[in-house]
Amino acid sequence: MKKPVRKLALFTVLLFLALIVNLNWLQVVRSEALRKDPGNTRVLLDEYQRQRGSIVVEGTPIAYSEPTDDKLKYLRKYANGPMYAPVTGYYSIVYGTSGLEKFENDVLSGTDDRLVGKNITDLFSGRDPKGGNIELTLSAAAQEAAYNALSATGMVGGVVALNPKTGAILAVASTPTYDPNLLSTHDPSQIREAAGQLSAQQPDPRANQALTENYPPGSIFKIVDAAAAIEGGLSIDDQIPAPDLYQLPGTKTTLSNFDGKACTSSEMDTLMHSFTVSCNTTFAQLAVDQIGEDRLRSAGEIFGINDESFEMPLKVAGSTMGDIIDDASLAQTAIGQRDVRFTVMQAAMLSATIANDGTLMKPYLVARTQAPDLSTLDETDPEQFGTGSLPKSTAQDITDMMISVVENGSGQNAQVSGVQVAGKTGTAQVSEGVNDHTWFTGFAPADDPQIAVAVFIRNGGGTGGEQSAPIAADVISAYLQSQGGG
């Protein structure tokens, strides 16, 4: 009898030890991850017992919580929900959090370590604990212009605007979009019905076209080519080959210009004019004969093209040149095709780099975080993205070429009355029988840049100058007018 009893006792001890280990694992090792899990309903239920902080744009809350009479003491609401949804995300009792509601949850929910003292004081004084606020860098005028112009197209697309001197994000728009209010009600059945309708759409409106989706950029990539060529010793007035057709090295495939047009009558052209008319054959041959893969990739790094995602604090997908296996793929890469993929944020970073005299500043969305008493917890200091920069003279040369695009070339629809705009259009082929993607990236005023903007329309058809440039003009004009200029 003693032997079975000993075995049972040993088994009981082992179970007890396993329970202790599991509890310690959950409470110590996994506690932080579980607490931050956006789908952890238990944590969400606790959070609904205190007032969540606001997300604020130019002094106006765009996400805030109001008291209710039900067991969930507060209801999350979104002002201009569809317009700001790509930034705020949602706060849902069923689906947890997304967007800034997720990435800034500690401050908004009041669980941030810096708010512990304030929460203890509230507890002893009988006041309900509250969350802190998040003040954004967004411009209400730029955001509204981007959202309205993009929505009017009825197309899938995205817009990003930056302050090139600081990296502050002025606008993030994505279409199709959704109303986060429908996911933040206290009725789980209504929430699931709304989510089901979103999931049935293609693409899902919750996908952020400006930040997390990437696409071939087409000719806006020629900004990178130009930087690499000038750094290699080429002048913008130097004559370079501009054939009507360019045979890709090692193949029987020929590359043509848009609509098969000739860039020049002599098949020789300046870098300035080839950039202005977006000559594909010029830049493809230039990449193979003079630039080379190493210099092209080095130039790309300066603009932030490094395959890696980053956070601002929302996650931005990486942009890439892809694999370049031979000279033929190098030529295709140089015109923003083959395996090149950009987010709209990356497209804005191209112009922001040139606008800031060749130095790219890291994009950021949160200007400051506040405690419930409105005291500042943290404030974002601008910083450089990466370590490399272009010489100021190179940035000025590219600025001159981008001005020529808007004044004389394919970007004339980006013109703004009384303001000199610098920009570059892009039209990216997708596949046979599928409409092209269209792009525009630029900045203004050209002599004292205040805003850099990128616009993308998925399968928009036409050209970047026709589809995307006018939206950029709207955003630039609205922002500059809001600042007292334009």
Task: Report on this structure.
This protein has 486 residues and is of the alpha+beta class. It has 17 helices and 19 strands. The strands form 6 sheets. It has a 6-stranded mixed beta sheet. A hairpin with an 8-residue loop joins strand 17 and strand 18. The radius of gyration is 26 Å and the shape is globular.
| Secondary structure tally: strands | 19
Helix content: 25-40%
What would you call the quaternary organization?
single chain
Spatial order of the strands forming the largest sheet: 3-2-1-6-15-16
Instruction: Specify the biggest β-sheet.
Output: 6 strands, mixed
How much is the average pLDDT?
91
C-alpha termini separation: 94 Å
Q: How much β-strand is present in the residues?
A: 15-25%
Quick recap of the structure?
One of its GO terms (cellular component) is plasma membrane. This protein is an alpha+beta fold and 486 residues long.
List the helices and strands and how they pair.
Elements: H1 2-29, H2 31-36, H3 41-47, E1 55-57, E2 60-67, E3 74-78, H4 81-88, E4 91-92, E5 96-97, H5 99-103, H6 105-109, H7 116-125, E6 133-136, H8 140-153, E7 157-162, E8 169-175, H9 188-199, H10 222-231, E9 239-241, E10 245-247, E11 254-256, E12 268-270, H11 271-276, H12 280-302, E13 310-311, E14 315-316, H13 327-334, H14 344-355, E15 366-370, E16 376-379, H15 392-408, E17 422-428, E18 437-444, E19 451-457, H16 464-467, H17 469-482
Parallel strand pairs: 1-6
Antiparallel strand pairs: 1-2, 2-3, 4-5, 6-15, 7-8, 7-19, 9-12, 10-11, 13-14, 15-16, 17-18, 18-19
Helix pairs in contact: 8-17, 10-12, 10-15, 12-13
